[in-house]
Every structure is written in C-alpha cells, then in structure tokens.
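Figure S4 source data
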Amino acid sequence: MRLGYVGTGNMGARFVERLLKAGHQVVAYDRSTEALAPLLAQGAEAGESPAAIAADTEAVFVSLPTPAIVEAVATEVVDALPAGHVFVDMSTSPPELARKIAAACEAKDAFGLDAPVSNGGVFVTVGGPQEVFEYLLPAFEAMCERVLYVGPAGQGQVAKLTRQYVSFTGFFTLVEALLVAAKAGGDVRAVADFIGESTGYRGPGGSLARLFDGDFGDPATSRAKLDIVAKDLALSVALADDLGAPSGTGAVATDVLRRGQELGWGELEYWVAVRALEQQAGVELRPD
C-alpha cells in the first residue's frame, strides 16, 4: 500500500519504521526535520504537507499530541482527501471528535477511522466502517501486535479511554495502598508482591519497579510522560461526565497528576506524580 503518515514523534516514528519493514510505501510529514530525517534514510518519502500527502496516498495516518492539533490537521487532510480514501487518527482524542471527523470524511465520499494505541503501541482499537478497517488491516497488523475492531466511529477512542481509566486509576490506588503499608512499618516490596500475586495487578508497564528504584526518566527519553497520561485520563473523566457515568476514582487520580504538573514534572514518566502522595503521607516508597 501507499500510505501517508503525519506526526513522526515517539510513536509515529516507530509505526513508519514498521510499515516500511512490512513493504509498504510511506510518505511522511513532520514539522521537525530532525524527527523525519532517520525515516527518510530508511526509505520513507518526504511529504510537502498533510494536504499534499492526502492527495498522493490511499490512507493518511496521524499520531499527534493533542485533540486541537488532531482537529486542525484533520481539517487540512480531509479537505484534500479524494473520494474513497481514508483518514486514520492513531492519537488519543475525544470520541465526539472522532465522529465529527468521520462525518466530514463521509461528506467527501471518503472514510474516517479512529485507531488509538495502548501499551506503547502493542494494542490498537479501531472504530469506523468495518470494511475499511478490513482493507487497512495489513497496515494495522504491521504497526501493532494486537488489532481489535470495536465498532462504529468513536468506539476506538471509547475503548482506549476506558482502558486508560482502569490502568491509571488502578495504579494510584495501588500506590495509596503501599503508602498505608509503608506508614504501618510493613515491607513494601513484599506487600507489593503479595498484591500482585493475589490480584494480578502490578501496575502498568513496569512502572512500580521503576518507582521503587527512583527512576522517573528524563524529558529526552520518557515515553509515558506525565503530561500525556494526564491528558488521557482527563479525557476519560470528561467522557464519563458527558455520559452521566460515575468517575470519582478518575477525578482523584487526575488531581494527583495535576499536582505533578504544577510541580514541573510534566516531561517525566507519569509515576513521578507519586512523589506528591509521598509528601502528603510523609513517607517514601523506596524499599532497600
């Protein structure tokens, strides 16, 4: 397939590399020439603009940092999208935006898919017309290990946001429990192991082990940045609020992340926000 990709940051660059390795032609665009250069060396073509890519490829994928940027790029791409072609948002955005983009594509006799990724790109949940999903399945399978079709437009984002809700509210619940154990003089690592073995939950992505080691990453290498997780969880809570569903645990976790942002930790790994809870408890989770 001849595919376009807009946004070659941390996640987008990985996906372009995988598409190239799978034999697809990729026309890529990023405002940062530094981000784009390694991909051009691997065989990607440089696109002049998102609109130019839309006119030159079967489908345009995007991985972008905020819903506002997604909407701006989507407007440019959809305006130039030929009939029968596809816009695919692999960012994390509100379901309502996904439906809005899909409707704009439909008005052009084109198609819109929302396909946000989870677990560092292991999973992708796709919403939109099933026949379009099936057509692009080889591209999704090249990029992600687990590809799930979850329903019409917007449902890919619903699946991602509910997953984020469980993952990150669960993590801060676990941390609060461990702070109780630490305050009570318990062996924190032993308690964490017991909770993990008895409940199956050890926190997402090795975060607890790195927290114990005092490893909070740095702006250049952090992948699960606090700012990104805070954005995702805030979108999850907003979705619950819009639907009139309960979101109490999400609101509490969102507040912890917000405190971490206020302390200037937004570019570090999200579990650095635990330091705010440690300060509140007067104890640190750093077992020897």
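Figure S5 source data
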Amino acid sequence: MGIGQSLAFWVVGAFFSMFFIPVLNGSNQAIWQAKVAPDVQGRVFATRRLIAQITGPLAMLTAGPLVDRLLEPAMQAGGDWAAIFGWLVGVGPGAGMGLLFVITSVIGALAALLGYKVPAVRNIETLLPDYVPVAKPAA
C-alpha cells in the first residue's frame, strides 16, 4: 500500500493485506487451543491478546510524530531521502507515510522469514505436545 499512488491500488492492497489475516489467526488460535490446558486457556489467551493488542496504541502514538517530524520532511522535494526513496513512494505530501508503510511491511516480512528460519518456531506444532486430559480415577 505504501507504493500506491491511487485509490484503486490502495483498495487492492488493502484487500490482499486483510485477506490472509483470518487464515493466519485461525491457524494460530488452533495451535494455542490444542497446546494449552482448558482450565488456564482464559488466562493464557487474555495475556496473549494483551501483548498483541498493546502494539496498536503504541504504534499510533509513535507513527504520527515519526511521520510528521522525520519522514514527511525527508520525502519532500529536495528532502534528505527524496532522492533515495522517491522512486518507490513518490515525493511530496503523503510520501513520508507511504515510506512508513513500506518500512513496516519489510520489517514484518523479515520477521516472518526469521520465524520460518528458526526450527523451534517453524515446528512448534510437532515439538510442543498437545494437551491431553488426565483420566480421573474411578471413585
């Protein structure tokens, strides 16, 4: 979405950005539900969601000042980074935000590749045993 210069490009980019999220979240949730004992799932899932969702407000608090004070001025005509990244995201109003989208997308892709490269992360489904309920003795 950061390299797009038109509404049509942004719509297609947003569609593909959101298309895979339900599949990823569903797969992730299935692994957690299989591995965590039911009696502690509420606490574990609440903690997991807290950690995941705290990044949203933190990102919003940092993105605005970062773009306004650093990226937008650097991506204006004659700016420090316009010659370097202008071919990718354009130059002028909005180019700094586009550059932020590109940078965060690259970081996300690198994190995914790193996770895939680490066998303990890639093979978590087979390495970590599923929760198996313990049979209660007959009274």
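The chain has a mean pLDDT of 92. The chain has one domain: 7-127.
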